[in-house]
Amino acid sequence: MPRPxxxxxxxxxxxxxxxxxxxxxxxxWLGVDGRTVRRYVDHLLDLDVPVESVRGRYGGYRLAPGxxxxxxxxxxxxxxxxxxxxxxxxRTGLTTTEHTASETAAAKIRRVLPxxxxxxxxxxxxxxxxxxxxGEFDNPNxxxxxxxxxAVRHCRPVAIRYTDRTDRPSERxxxxxxxxxxAGRWYVTGRDAGIGENRTFRLDRIADARTLPGSFEVPDGPxxxxxxxxxxxxxxxxxxxxxxxxxTTEQIRTRLPAGVATLEELEAASGExxxxxxxEELEAAxxxxxxxxxxxxxxxxxxxxxxLPPVLAALDLPxxxxxxxxxxxxxxxxxxxxAHHARGG
Length: 345
Hints:
Layout: H1 4-16, H2 23-30, H3 34-46, E1 51-54, E2 60-63, H4 76-92, H5 99-111, H6 115-127, H7 142-154, E3 158-163, E4 169-182, E5 185-192, E6 197-202, E7 206-211, H8 224-233, E8 239-246, H9 249-253, E9 261-265, H10 279-285, E10 295-302, H11 308-315, E11 319-323, H12 325-342
Antiparallel strand pairs: 1-2, 3-4, 3-7, 4-5, 5-6, 8-10, 8-11, 9-10
Helix pairs in contact: 1-3, 4-5
């Protein structure tokens, strides 16, 4: 039979799961009568845990927001989920500037884990791999992240001090549409009120954020994540690449995601072929119903071109290079090297 203190902690865990718990429900879970439940609630109130009494037919007890975090009760699976989330955030760079905050939080939870649960966690962390290296990226300040998030939620302008990739500082007023985590970094996207254009900013390059009076309306159109990805795909880089690739959007996106390339399906005019594909090649490119896959125009902005030939080879789809000529030469040279290696030369 659990001791009274254990039942009080069980009551806290039940209340922390959210919502209003009826007196009958709590009494059944704890194996006591309603009078004892009220006594346990009084114990929690003595510990400054903010328990509210809800009257009415569906009344009972619930936790109210308090001035400090009450003792947190987590089940085994919940503790594993929290610790794995903290570890994933640390390894992929999606944490705040205060690395010690996640480390101390994880240490506090690990310290009270049952031994068998700790062993399960260690086994999991030893076997899981992350694509991003630990500490690879800079991380935003937690207070700045929360300030920008509040501005997004309430559609309030926010003044920021920003340093771009050339280390040039500037002060901007931003109508922030949303915050996006992408490839190990945090971004905020919205309208730069000073220039009247949409822009995306890295949150770790924002030195200060301050909410301003007023409000704005978020325009219709792509969501924040799509805006960020489109911004990457159309950013100013050294090379502008245009291709035609025969295949589905899903096939092309396996190697050229939205943050790298923009896609546009092409429609051939009557009697016109979009690319020189005929005979056996046309048959191989056809789907189950004998209809060839569509051709898509692919546009890419890139600082370098040397990574594209192996990507196009990995796609294994018919393609035509429209520009630049330099890419065509790189693809031919790459094909010659593959043929040379295949011959064992």
